[in-house]
Amino acid sequence: MQPSAVVKAQITPAERFQMYVDGQWVSAEGDRTFEVRNPADRTVAGIVPDGGIPETRRAIESAHRAFPAWSRTPAKDRGVILKGIMELMAERRDEIAKLVVLENGKPYEEAKGEVGFSMGYFGWFAEEARRIYGDVVSSPFANKRLWVLRQPLGVVGAITPWNFPANMITRKIAPAMAAGCTVVLKPASATPLTALAIARCGHDAGLPAGVLNIVTAAKSGAVGDELLRNPHVKKIGFTGSTQVGKGLMKQAADQIKRISFELGGNAPFIVFDDADFDKALEGAIAMKFLRVGGQSCICANRIFVQETIAERFITAFVERTKALKVGPGFEAGMQVGPLINEEALRSMQHFVEDATSRGARVLTGGRRYTSPPLDKGFFFEPTVLVDVNDNMPVCVEEIFGPIAPILIFKTEEEVLRRANATSYGLAAYFYTRDYARIARVSEGLEAGLVGINDAQGYTHEIPFGGFKESGLGREGGREGIEEYLEVKSLVVNLG
């Protein structure tokens, strides 16, 4: 493939792509490839190199060679290039969004929103690069001076998921490159095309060879192992499941390699009886169904409604759920796209069958779509469950799909206890008009992100990350760039 094909106006099925290593568009050894399929109809969206250990090593060596010059490049100049990437992503936003839809399936307008938000990380961290400050510390000795420097770590290995194929990438590579680090990225095998489009923007913006490398592979094992074992890689940034994160953490321990993880979630969405009813209803629908059809770590996983408004809320929530438009992402007006694969479909069906076998009732949905044209893809009906309890798998595990279990509570103390009764702590949401309650509940919820009368999620300007088994470290905000810096203390003896 010619590099420019990544952003062509029309993407042809079965088009061949290349990965990006050392500033070049390259194939895998032996011309190994794998197919990327559209989850809406299972057609081939592209053919991508199937990289492994040799390609990963070349990418790491390239990043290692590029690090000295890039780390010494003035922060202002690094920022100019990052802003250039943002500007090119803005120019190519529609075409990158098409790639997101082709490989991820989410509705086109949602994809455009993701690309627009993701490019903002380049702008934010381009500015934060100039605010990496050191310190002059007051010395207890007359003949000594104490200085503290912050310097880039080195080569960073980034492993990203498929649910936000643009945002999950830029949230990692933008702060890393802004800090002066170089990057080897392994995008999800389901969604590598968006990553290559972002690499094209970096290439065209003048990013020096080796600063950003993209290794595509059908399976993450070999690439991930090399990133973890190679001593040139100083840090691993990963977004994915808690189970995989625990495995990576164990491997990283062999070299005491720095890690930052955004892992699974089990977000409670709490509606108190004094909430603005309509806003709480819209927020619950949005945070349950309108973020990749529920395939997001910060989606509402358990919806708690106070007893006095439960009947009214459930009735309205079911009506709104039934009105959602489900279909292929390129069709106008679609709100919910397909799940990512057959395994995800089976998981949704298992959650419903398990819950109903334990006494839960399905008020709407509960099945995969079996009629044309949705039977060609991985579509599952937006589903509402009631009569569920806190111990059912659908309330204990991360759903990652369009199933909304609704639970009823009586008191603030009760719902706080139940909301926190999970090993996860990524996000939580609640709606109330009581300002004293806002203070109590926001402080009491055990989560890294708390939305109060808000279901929009995080922004570039604040840190994002999890409590408990939902992760380590933070992305975004001024804290995001600190994840890619070492702190060095200097003791200067003046004699």
Number of strands: 20
- What is the strand content? 15-25%
The total of helices stands at 15
CATH arch. level architecture of the largest domain: 3-Layer(aba) Sandwich
Q: Which class of secondary structure composition applies to the elements?
A: alpha/beta
Mean pLDDT: 96
Q: Going by CATH, what is the homologous superfamily of the largest domain?
A: Aldehyde Dehydrogenase, Chain A, domain 1
Strand order of the largest sheet: 14-15-16-13-12-17-18
Q: Span between N and C termini?
A: 63 Å
User: Any low-confidence stretches, pLDDT <50, length ≥5?
Assistant: 1-11
Which descriptor suits the 3D outline? globular
Radius of gyration: 23 Å
What would you note in describing this structure?
This protein is of the alpha/beta class and 495 residues long. The chain has two domains: 3-263 and 470-490, 3-Layer(aba) Sandwich (Aldehyde Dehydrogenase, Chain A, domain 1), CATH 3.40.605; 267-459, Aldehyde Dehydrogenase, Chain A, domain 2 (3-Layer(aba) Sandwich), CATH 3.40.309. The chain has helices at residues 53-72, 75-91, 93-104, 108-128, 167-179, 192-204, 221-229, 242-252, 277-289, 310-322, 342-357, 393-396, 412-420, 435-444, 477-482; strands at 19-21, 24-26, 33-37, 44-49, 135-137, 144-152, 155-159, 182-186, 212-214, 233-239, 258-262, 267-271, 300-306, 361-364, 383-386, 403-409, 427-431, 449-452, 471-472, 485-493. Strands 14-15-16-13-12-17-18 form a seven-stranded mixed sheet, with helices on both faces. The protein has a six-stranded mixed sheet with strand order 9-8-7-10-11-19, sandwiched between helices. A three-stranded antiparallel sheet has the order 5-6-20, with no helix packed on it. Strand 5 and strand 6 form a beta hairpin. Helix 1 packs across helix 7 and helix 9 packs across helix 10 (310-322). The protein starts with 18 loop residues before the first strand and ends with a strand. Mean pLDDT is 96; it is low at 1-11.
